[in-house]
Amino acid sequence: MAERSTPDLPALPYDYDALEPHISEQVVTWHHDTHHQGYVNGLDSAEETLAENREAGEFDGSAAAIRNVTHNGSGHYLHTLFWENMDPNGGGEPEGDLRERIEEDFGSYEGWKGEFEAAASGAGGWALLVYDPVAKQLRNLVVDKHDQGALWGSHPILALDVWEHSYYHDYGPARGDFVDNFFEVVDWDDVADQYANVVSRVE
User: How many other C-beta atoms can be found within 10 angstroms of the C-beta atom of residue 37?
Assistant: First the structure.
């Protein structure tokens, strides 16, 4: 059997205090080093269990481990995108091909943003902007936890974590204030790159 690769926690693409005052150093530290690390650990543990079960030919615990791969893997991947989608010099609005596609699929940037904010308000996990390669269009998704409400085949290009650990220390129950401040640090260049990479593969 080939040696199993293990997932790693990616380093932040900026300093822990770089997103202040919009997201505090304390929240970024807890969120990245504890919460995100927890999903990496959970994914590694579940994959180890599956490998051991295959080796032993015993599969009683495999269904639970597969569920843990889905949950922790989705948490790991979405958190990685969340960090990449932000930058201390972010904010503003999208431009170029991404802006044109948003206007084509949602009618206007304002129409997209209002719908995305509604998704963030209603989600028990994540608001996502994804590219749907079946319908060949952008969509907003309300995703609970990390994987409930996902759309098969879709590719997230913008991820907003609205679990309470993302904002409660900074904003208390005012999730809407956190969402407003998230838009002050969105790295639209990264989102545009995510979009371009997806479209180049599927269209």
Answer: 15
| φ, ψ dihedrals at 63, nearest 5° | -60, -45
Q: With a threshold of 0.85, does the pTM exceed it?
A: yes
- Given this model, what pLDDT does residue 3 score? 64
The residues, any chain, with a CB within 8 Å of residue 67's CB and separated by 6 or more, are none
Q: In whole angstroms, how far apart are CA 120 and each of 4, 38, 90, 160, 178?
A: 36, 23, 19, 7, 10
What are the angstrom distances between the C-alpha of 144 and each of 107, 132, 148? 26, 19, 5
Q: Is 145 left (phi over 0), alpha (psi -120 to 50) or beta?
A: left
What pLDDT does residue 4 have? 60
94 exposure class (CB count in 10 Å sphere: 0-12, 13-18, 19+): buried
Mean pLDDT to the nearest integer, 4-15? 90
Rounded to 5 degrees, what angle do the CA atoms 46, 147, 105 make? 145
Contact 50, 68 (CB under 8 A): no
Residue 14 near residue 88, CB atoms below 8 Å: yes
